[in-house]
Amino acid sequence: MSKPAEFYQRDRERHPPALTPNYKTSVARSPRYALISLQNSVSEITGPVFGHADIDPIDNDLLSNYAQPDQSPIGERIIVHGRVLDENARPVPNTLVEIWQANAGGRYRHKKDTYLAPIDPNFGGCGRTMTDENGYYYFRTVKPGAYPWRNLVNNWRPAHIHLSIFGSGFAQRLITQLYFEGDPLIHKCPIVNTIPDPDAIEQLIARLDLNATIPLDTIAYKFDIVLRGRRSTLFENRLEGN
C-alpha cells in the first residue's frame, strides 16, 4: 500500500482571476504584480491555540444565543452540519469553525448595513463551535435572505453563510461561503461567476439533507469542508497565496 503524498499541488485554474471587471470591487483590489506563495513561519505554525473551554454550550445555536427569553428569530429554521476533512478525507478534529450571516430578511447586524429589511431583535447572526473527534460540526440558525448590492443596476447576493475555519493558531485561518441547493440566484451572482471551475462552484453549495432534518422543526443542509488537495473547498483568502 502506497503512502499518501504529504502535499498536493494546488490547481490554480479552480480559483478566480484577481481581476474580474463584472465584480467591480475586484478592479481596485486586484494586485498589479504576480502572486507569491509563502511558506508558513514559526509564528504562523505555533499558538495561540483554541480549546473547548473557550466555547459556550449555545454558541453554535443561533436560534437562542442572542434571543430574549422565550423568544426566537424570525425565519426558516435550519441546521447546517458537516465534517472538516484533510486532502485524504481524514477528519480534522478540535478545529474552531465560526459562521456569520444576514438575518431572514437579508440584513446583517452591522451599523454600515443600510438595507431596508428590518433588524431582528432576537438574531445576532454569528456563532462558533469546535469539531469533534470525527471532524464533525453542527449549527442551528435561520436561512439567510438574499440582499441587493451596488455592483451593477440590479445585482442580488444569493442566500449565503460565511464560514471561518481555524488551524492550531490565530494565523492559520481560512474563510469561505456556502450557498443553498436550488437557489436560482447562485449562478446569477457576479461574485460566484468569477470562479472559472463549475465543479468548484458546486462544492460551495450545501445540499438538502432530509436524513438530518428534524420533522416539524428544522430543515437540514450538509456542507463538508476539505482543507487541501485536489478536492479542496474554495477559500476566499487563498487567492493571495498559501
From TrEMBL:
Q: Which residues form the Protocatechuate 3,4-dioxygenase beta subunit N-terminal domain?
A: 8-40
Q: Known EC number(s)? A: 1.13.11.3
Protein's GO biological process: 3,4-dihydroxybenzoate catabolic process
Q: What is this protein called?
A: Protocatechuate 3,4-dioxygenase subunit beta
Keyword list (alphabetical) reads: Dioxygenase, Oxidoreductase
Query: Per its UniProt entry, which superkingdom is the organism in?
Result: Bacteria
The cross-references to InterPro entries, in alphabetical order and at most eight, read:
Intradiol_dOase_C, Intradiol_dOase_core, Intradiol_RC_Dioxygenase, PCDO_beta_N, Protocat_dOase_b
- Entry-linked NCBIfam families: protocat_beta
Tell me yes or no: is Calcium among this UniProt entry's keywords: no
Q: Does the keyword Oxidoreductase apply?
A: yes
Transmembrane regions listed in the UniProt entry: none
Per the record, the similarity remark reads: Belongs to the intradiol ring-cleavage dioxygenase family.
Q: Which SUPFAM superfamilies match?
A: Aromatic compound dioxygenase
Region (Disordered), start-end ranges:
1-24
Q: Please give one Gene Ontology molecular function term for this protein.
A: protocatechuate 3,4-dioxygenase activity
According to its UniProt entry, this protein's organism is Phaeobacter gallaeciensis
Q: Which residues form the Intradiol ring-cleavage dioxygenases domain?
A: 45-229
